What we know:
The chain is of the alpha/beta class. It is built from 14 helices and 13 strands. It has helices spanning 3-25, 47-55, 68-71, 92-103, 117-123, 216-219, 224-232, 257-263, 265-285, 303-316, 320-339, 350-360, 364-379, 386-407, and strands at 59-64, 80-84, 87-88, 107-111, 114-115, 126-130, 139-144, 153-155, 162-167, 174-182, 192-200, 203-208, 239-244. β7 and β8 (153-155) form a beta hairpin. The relative contact order is 0.11. The model has no long low-confidence stretch (mean pLDDT 83). This is DUF4350 domain-containing protein.
Amino acid sequence: MSKKHKIILGVLIALLAMLVVLEANKSQPINWFPSYAKTDKIPLGTFVLFEQLAKNETFTLTEVNQPPFIALQDSLKEGSYLFVNDKIMFDKDETNRLLHWIERGNAAYIAANYMSSALLDTLDISMAVGFVTNTVESDPVFSLTSKPDPDHSYRFNTSIDIKYFDKIDTTSHKILGHIDIYEENDEKNDSLVNFIEIPYGEGTLWLHSMPQAFSNYFILQKDHENYTQKALGYLPKSSNLYWDNHYKSGQTIQLSVLYLLLGNKYLKWSYYMALIAGVLFVIFEGKRKQRSIPMITPLKNQTYAYTQTIAGMYLERKEHTEIAKKQIRQLFDFIRTKLRVNLTGKHIDKEDIETITARSGASAKAVKELFIDIEHILQQPEEITKNELLELTKKINHFKHSIHGRTE
């Protein structure tokens, strides 16, 4: 790497380090996501509420991870069912099962900004959004009517949408709480109903239109835990309290590893730096650092050329008998390998010839003539002629060809 490249790389690394430090020290915006999950410590989580209920000895707290339609199939399950979420959207069948469960003497407490039309229509209730026409922002103020300190109010110090019940059955529904809207000049508007009690069969149903009153942000404000405690004080004591985990906007879900990696700012920037470092390495260090290695042609098999050379020497010297003996030894080795007949010496037995004929598939006449020529050559002391050598070669090749044709 040249000196210039090293300087550029050092500057880039320094800039990346500064960017990571600035990003890590940057203040994070407040997360106002309406989670209402028991594990979330964000403003609109329910970590504080769940911890307090778990410590309360008047209840036996049980978590329910299934939808009510499945959870309430067990007819022996008795107690109170608590729902806290931004939206509680029961379908018709689930609404009927829940109300039938309440009718048998149980209780349900639903705190949600949005409730399903199946539930509201069955109870002859409707919900609306409250707002002030002459201002953009407004803070809600909660108050209870039937508990001690009915005139005491609890202000939610953040502007949020106001949900309330604009239609109820005053003959059977009991109003337990109101919500007021403070304008910018701290003037209070008309009280709106946000908390009601509905007798249903032998049981009771409570509806609260502002689940923010059960969130971490609200409970941790000064004296505000009194409101939440009194609002939940209507639940029957010494009974089972079922905490709903299914209808939660922030319910636990399976996430990919990359999603979790990018969700943490420290891991995210470490991941980015690794990618950038990889790109820089490819740019500056990815070049070849040595000359290309020349291709070496492998050595050729010179056996055939060597054989041709030796054969040419024998032919040139007219040593026909020596060539014939080498061919005969090669034939004997071939017969031993292919036909399992071991031939030795200058004289070949008649039984060996018959065995070779039977196993090779060649004609008896051709085999007999071949071995007569072989015996003649092996026993003849004088040099054979070139024509005799060629004749022997033809007979040997014909014999081998007949055996190969049979085995194939």
